[in-house]
């Protein structure tokens, strides 16, 4: 057998009665020692791995369908199918199967000749006659209906009845009786024909389907199924299929076989979805072959259309032509939507070729045009097509938009068109916006971005997105939180001003979607989104929404802040503390009052996270302190007192560095630099001097408490001058006053000369966030620093 003839696709039927593609390979029939018999082997054409190894069981019923399919069951719920590229290859393997089972290759179904144990029927010889069918006459319809209904519980009897119906051309005779009964208005006969045709469908045989669904018979089959005995009046399915449902050829299809296949598939799908009742638990497997019939029809349609490049080129040309009228363009878009839906039946490599063909023909530029149209139906269909493309290959879409940015303005970029459609969704529930937001999240998700030796898709695309698209996404958020957009209502007896965002329900929903996407960016785009938030002061604008009358929107704003704080990023923490960005959160909590609701719980959780952060910091500090003490205790005392004491000048430098780092924090007590250490035998004298100095300092502190000035600031008086800090005679030192004011200091170069502290009294301000410290830095600071760390709440 040539390679082409042996080429097959392997399918298995899943729990949802859908065929799953297991791969493409080459089939052979050979004796397998391990299985003790002739077997079907399929090896993958890509790597030669074994896709299928199945022993040809003498008792297994194999079915040959549509000249290129062989279907069988290996277990109760395990169905297999081989789809051959050529009929000759299918015929050759079929002959091998029939040879093993001792069957005539002319049959379409090999039979299991052992009856089920429940029926207690002994094995029948191959020469035993098939089921005898009653003559096809009006007065025999009831008997025929009883026969068809009775065999459904027995697999072997279903097989025999199917062969009898096929060999005697019985179905066409039944459909002729249908026409007679309908002309005579023979209601009883029509009810019997409904039971007969429904029972034949449940025989689940492809050979019978090919007869019933042919152009000659299918409308009569639909007619029989209109006369359900349980209904008072018959349905009008034929009227719908012939008059209401119109087949529209957006571009004339010249291939008659393709046109016939499209008609057949639509009608069979209608029979399965609309006409046939939902099968019971005992009947759910009866229509598996019908599902397969539709599946393989769709595969064939897509393959035939894909191979006709002239047809697809004409469709794209009309779709992008400005002269095309709106109705025609709507039909073209709907055709592509259905075309992409059918493509989901293709195996992965064929689906890959399918979408690459569409991309080559210009599907993405075409979508850019139709997604900006006013017609809601066209935009909806275009969105569905775009979702198929993003789901298949987000990298393909990203590559297109980055190339497009080099030639087009930001306003007409495909992603910006998608964002604008999300923003302008007229649906009160924003159904389309939700779908588009999900597609945008897929496109900006670093998890599905590729990294190669030559380039990194993540960095390139995120640079593009934040430079060309982010401003479009955040425009509604910034517009609805700007000062001229919001109303400021002064609250009587309060020092704060309420900033109320004028958001209606639909606007609030849109802002919530945008915040959800921005929160995703905070979690996955650390560098790019951080720069954007800092440059645009975005968190402050987002927190304006804490005053929204829509609680879900306030929660979205709070969630955005919570994600930022959860990163424990030093830059974010400084940004939040310097900007006093906890104030809107505290105000929202106070405005919420005593109500115990989701907003209350979310705010509490936020500060509980901060509290746990501080607690963890304190625990690490105490553990490190204990460790250092243990180290110090292990060193001889003489070494501790001399060699490991640091010079006072080094301590002064440490103090100066600390003041430079924390000059914006609130004032704290400063430990004066200690004298250079002396030997242990001088300790008593040193201690007495230390106590005298301490008492003098305490009396001076009482006299020099800060006093509020008329300007509202605080006045600090220090008795330690610059000369005293440098070791000069303290009796000659002069009192230096430091007046707090918004103005900057003189910038004196003397160390420890003056200390200027700004004291703020803003309502709602809290202690700033603190990162977990770096272990090595903590070790050095805790060992040498002459000060203590500020306490929480100081």
From TrEMBL:
Pfam families: EVH1_PP4R3 (PF22972), PP4R3 (PF04802). Residues 656-794 are annotated as: Disordered. Residues 656-668, 772-783 have a biased composition (Acidic residues). Residues 675-706 have a biased composition (Basic and acidic residues). Residues 719-750 have a biased composition (Low complexity). Residues 5-101 form the PP4R3 EVH1-like domain. Residues 751-763 have a biased composition (Polar residues). Residues 143-634 form the Serine/threonine-protein phosphatase 4 regulatory subunit 3-like central domain. Belongs to the SMEK family. This is Serine/threonine-protein phosphatase 4 regulatory subunit 3B isoform X3. The lineage of its organism: Eukaryota, Metazoa, Chordata, Craniata, Vertebrata. The gene is PPP4R3B.
